[in-house]
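Hi there,

I know you've been waiting on this one. I reran it after we fixed the sequence typo, so this is the corrected version. Both the input and the resulting structure follow.
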Amino acid sequence: MRTDEYHGLEFDWVAADISGQLAIFCSAGYGPVPAKALRAAGDQEALLGLIGIQAGLSGQSDFLTSRCHRAIYCFDWKLFEGPYRLKQEPAPEKGMGIDTLPERLRDSVTRLDLSFIGRELIHAAERGGI
């Protein structure tokens, strides 16, 4: 269970998979958030802005499909027990990787030891998970 200052509040964070592909994770206020992302909350907002997403709004289902611009993967936490579920895959010609981000923000991206390709669910407890 989350006990951080954002518990119960939407907290959106950015992660990269083993190949460097980016994803936004929408916590719905209850999904697990890596400590690294929580410590870099300001950088998370900057990352979301670069991707074209306003922090705190992405938990809305229609928002996910219309505002992610098909540039990154989008995973949304299923209230209340999870897991994170895939809501959108990037369009092949629009996919953003960690190498497209400004160098100063790359360290704020959580790196997961898994691939987003073909993944419908991400559980907090799985190897390489959150």
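Quick highlight: The CA atoms of residues 75 and 86 lie 4 Å apart.

Best,
R. S.
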